[in-house]
Write a structure and sequence with these properties.
Its main location: cytoplasm. Belongs to the TRAFAC class YlqF/YawG GTPase family. MTG1 subfamily. One of its GO terms (molecular function) is GTP binding. The protein is α/β, with parallel strands linked by helices and about 280 residues long. The chain has two domains: about 10-170, Rossmann fold; about 200-280, Conserved Hypothetical Protein Ylqf, Chain: A, domain 2, CATH 1.10.1580.10. The chain contains ten helices and eight strands. It has helices spanning about 5-20, 45-50, 65-75, 95-115, 135-140, 185-190, 200-215, 220-225, 235-245, 255-270, and strands at about 25-30, 50-60, 80-85, 120-125, 145, 160-165, 165-170, 175. Strands 1, 2, 3, 4, 5, 6, 7 and 8 form an eight-stranded mixed β-sheet that branches. Helix 9 crosses helix 10. The protein is elongated and about 80 Å long. It starts with 6 loop residues before the first helix and ends in a 16-residue tail after the last helix. About 35% of the residues are buried. Bound molecules: guanosine-5'-diphosphate. Guanosine-5'-diphosphate (GDP) binds near residues 61 and 87.
């Protein structure tokens, strides 16, 4: 799904998150494990204020595991509980419930001490488009969708999904807009396929990808394309990859736009391995 973000859309999205916030105990902020910073919208802090939050690094199956561990530690040092999951794997999602219980443990203890019966935790998912919100909701839902009758503030079209006894999830996720005022952030979102909008042309994306890989994952570049570092000017590297893969036009010249597409596709399809594009070091 491609969403063009205009001020009106942003205001509406913000309003929806704000309204649903009243119904829940905790917000699940879904982020892309390959882009733990670039796939967040810092505005969420203003929107959710003091509401408890769990950070969920989704698509962890596609990210660099070492970096994922460091990011979890980074977020926890900042006071946010974080878990890494793959939403395509229902079993691993059990960790989400457990983590939510941890975040709310104190509050639930206080309730228990007051003699209140513990109830299921109510949660909502928020995140930028394409981060995996629907996938996660569907996997968690299985068949346990409960019709909401008379819950205050819940519109008829909204439902709570029961996830075991411990968790109830609002079936409509909150959509945040990606923030790509910073060119690098936009490039990272685009090269991973986290956003589908053509905010950059393929050649620029491929060049961005190659430069990124040379800096952070030179070995992968070597293994995939048999190159030691990039050429200056970069066209030499394109020539090399084009010849290696035999990407030529009918006259025999290298088809550079096809080479660009190949590089970007290789990155998105994990042919260069599991990659993380935000490095903790750059944010400390
Ligand atoms: P939404 O826009 O946030 O609701 O995102 P979707 O749920 O539609 O997911 C976008 C794409 O990411 C789909 O192609 C999903 O199959 C894929 N996806 C979602 N979660 C994961 C995950 O944990 N791992 C992988 N590899 N793909 C995922």
């Amino acid at each position: 799904m491609t969403i063009q973000w205009f001020p009106g859309h942003m205001a509406k999205a913000r309003r929806q998150v704000t309204e649903n916030l009243k119904l829940v105990d905790i917000v699940f902020e879904l982020i892309d494990a390959r882009l733990p910073m670039s796939s967040r919208n810092p505005m969420l802090d203003d929107i959710i204020h003091q509401k408890k939050r769990l950070l969920i690094l989704n698509k962890a199956d596609m990210a660099d595991e070492t970096q994922t561990k460091r990011w979890i530690q980074f977020f926890e040092e900042k006071g946010h509980k974080a878990v890494a999951v793959n939403s395509l794997d229902s079993k691993g999602l059990k960790r989400v419930t457990k983590a939510a219980e941890d975040v709310l443990a104190e509050k639930w203890d206080r309730m228990r001490k007051k003699g209140l019966k513990p109830r299921a935790i109510r949660a909502m998912i928020v995140g930028i488009p394409n981060v995996g919100k629907s996938t996660m909701i569907n996997r968690l839902a299985k068949k346990n969708i409960a019709r909401t009758g008379n819950m205050p503030g819940v519109t008829k079209s909204q439902q709570w999904i029961k996830v075991g006894k411990e968790l109830e999830l609002l079936d409509t996720p909150g959509i945040l807009w990606p923030k790509f005022e910073d060119q690098r952030v936009g490039a990272k979102l685009a090269v991973t396929g986290a956003i589908k909008d053509a905010i950059m042309n393929m050649d620029d994306l491929a060049i961005f990808g190659l430069n990124f890989l040379e800096t952070y994952y030179p070995q992968r570049l070597h293994e995939r394309y048999q190159i030691e570092g990039l050429t200056d000017p970069i066209v030499g590297t394109f020539d090399h990859i084009g010849k290696l893969r035999n990407i030529k036009m009918s006259g025999g010249d290298i088809d550079y736009s096809m080479v660009s597409e190949l590089i970007v596709r290789d990155i998105r399809n994990e042919h260069l391995g599991k990659l993380t594009f935000d490095f903790v070091e750059d944010y400390e």
